[in-house]
């Protein structure tokens, strides 16, 4: 059974967690995610949506699978999961996670690897690791701190309190919060909007954010001209500025431009 698959619908790629109802993270999950991300990276998609079949995004790690691994095997497994999560972050396109039901442990970390999270109001995000004597191993602590600050990240990771989609939206973890039945449609619409946007501009913005994350404002400032100046002569910029100039001449608000370049 294929527990994760990649599929493409027009300019939006989908990585689908396809082992409902729990979509547990185990060796087969890690191997399939690696393949799906590889397929996404070699496609011509302009945005990526990570979503799940069944009632839950994922209930996290398969502890039975974990108990069967010795220390070296578990370290390799976690390293491979991290590689796939970081590969999603490294894609040159915007990424969206659609979360309803449970997003526990590593599944929460998978969602945090995406640029945007569209969450169900009653979704449940939870760092569960400390409750079983472990700690988040695939980026939750630092990525939560980046999104919501150190003290809130410490509370999430140490106290293992469940967090609703509504709370995730209020804190800024989730970009958009909708009723559970609307999650996939809302996330797809969001991803389609990104896919119709200026992909190279998005890539530059994502690179600046990574620079800021690694070295603060001075690091991003040092790279800003090298990252952004190539956009000035791009076809996207020419079309966008021309359309805006024409709209200004006519005294109207310019409409959203649909971009086709990479």
Automatic annotation (TrEMBL):
**Which InterPro entries does UniProt cross-reference here?**
ClpP/crotonase-like_dom_sf, Enoyl-CoA_hyd/isom_CS, Enoyl-CoA_hydra/iso
Give any Pfam family that matches.
ECH_1
In terms of CDD domains, this protein maps to: crotonase-like
- Which Gene3D superfamilies does UniProt cross-reference here? 2-enoyl-CoA Hydratase, Chain A, domain 1
Q: Which family does it belong to?
A: Belongs to the enoyl-CoA hydratase/isomerase family.
Q: Tell me the protein's name.
A: Crotonase
What is the organism lineage in this UniProt record? Bacteria, Pseudomonadati, Pseudomonadota, Alphaproteobacteria, Hyphomicrobiales
């Amino acid at each position: 059974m294929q527990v994760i698959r990649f599929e493409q619908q027009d300019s939006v790629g989908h990585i689908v967690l396809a082992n409902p109802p729990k979509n547990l993270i185990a060796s087969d999950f890690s191997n399939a995610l690696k393949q799906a991300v590889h397929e996404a990276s070699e496609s011509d998609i302009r945005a990526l949506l990570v979503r799940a079949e069944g009632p839950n995004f994922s209930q996290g790690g398969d502890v039975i699978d974990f108990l069967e691994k010795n220390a070296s095997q578990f370290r390799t497994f976690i390293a491979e999961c991290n590689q796939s999560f970081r590969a999603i972050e490294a894609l040159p396109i915007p990424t969206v996670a659609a979360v309803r039901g449970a997003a526990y442990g590593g599944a929460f970390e998978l969602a945090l690897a995406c640029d945007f999270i569209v969450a169900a109001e009653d979704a449940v995000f939870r760092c569960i690791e400390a409750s079983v004597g472990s700690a988040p191993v695939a980026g939750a602590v630092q990525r939560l701190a980046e999104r919501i600050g150190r003290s809130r990240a410490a509370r999430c990771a140490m106290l293992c309190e469940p967090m609703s989609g509504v709370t995730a939206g209020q804190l800024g973890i989730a970009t958009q919060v909708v009723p559970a039945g609307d999650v996939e449609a809302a996330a797809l619409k969001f991803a389609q909007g990104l896919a119709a946007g200026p992909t190279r501009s998005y890539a530059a913005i994502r690179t600046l954010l990574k620079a800021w994350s690694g070295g603060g404002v001075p690091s991003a400032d040092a790279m800003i001209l090298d990252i952004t100046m190539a956009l000035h002569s791009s076809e996207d910029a020419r079309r966008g500025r021309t359309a805006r100039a024409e709209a200004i001449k006519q005294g109207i608000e310019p409409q959203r431009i649909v971009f086709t370049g990479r």
